[in-house]
Amino acid sequence: ESDVFIAFSTRQALRRIGHWKPLGAGLASTDAKVRTGLLLALELGYEKEAVEALAGYIADRQHPAEERARALMYLSQVHRRAKPWDGHWWGTRPVMGKPPAKVEEWAGTPVVLATVREHLADPQAAVRIAAIEAVAETNDRAALPTLRVQFPKERDTAVRVAIAKSLGALDDKESLRVLISAMRDTTAPEAV
Fold it and tell me: H or E element: which one contains 155?
């Protein structure tokens, strides 16, 4: 639907209905607009079937890399849930504070983390970058050793930059050796 209000209302209705399997099947559409709309409908879906639909879409390398990367970003946003509102966080001026941290695991958390880790070595750079950024989004410290090993071997400059940013965002002190080595490497691209 080209009308943004109708498209948004349709996505909201699909979320409320919560019948995720047909949405996942619709991701096989040959129409890019349909796939984009369905991916948006699956965004922030804290339902295990929604997470599994996104994970399945990401795993299928037949889909465009940009769409797979976007699906991975959407998936990483539901890694954990925020604690229920206790009457204190955000207060009367929510714009002045940070949103509550997502710290409570739910049934989809293992699927999210496994999918992110699996795609750190994806053959498509856009998907690798999305997975690397998802490591920081999910605060997945268990993936840090993989990033440390991947950083010096990675040939794509944008992917190396994403790895360095994620290692920094997670304050990974064990990565200092590989990061300093990159700084001293005169052949390393300036962006790295």
Answer: none
